[in-house]
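Hi R.,

Here's the chain you asked about this morning:
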Amino acid sequence: MTYIRSKPESRGDAAGLAASAVTMATRREIAREHRQIRAVVAEIEATADLEVLLPRLGELRELLEVHFAREEAPDGLHQVVDGTAPRLATSVQALFAEHREMLALLAGISQRARACLEGPVADVRRSAAELCRRLHEHEAAETDLLAGAVYEDIGGGD
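And the predicted structure, written out as tokens:
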């Protein structure tokens, strides 16, 4: 995540003070969003379960879309950088390009996770369920066989 720690524009007029207040509010909001994003990323890093991962990826996508839109808004990183460090404008544009790349990457990962859950994982689950069904039938057949041997054979000699 990118953090902007530069000082707001320090003009003495009312417009400068208003711009500084907006910039500070935007910075606080961006910092809050960074904390939320880091928390979801930590959850994603901590799981290998696709059924847990997929909803977290969706949550991350929603957070990133809102967050990236805020950063790319006229009062987002543009205002912070343009007002305090215009030399970084090219770097800001590169970050914005990364936003699109990360959202596309996230969409691809989510699509592959859904495909696994619907395809290979679903197939493995169906196979495991079939195995369990057959084991239950096998156990029932064994029980019937043993019951028949004990009850029929023991009583059959009378």
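The two ends are 85 Å apart (CA to CA).

Let me know if you need anything else.
M.
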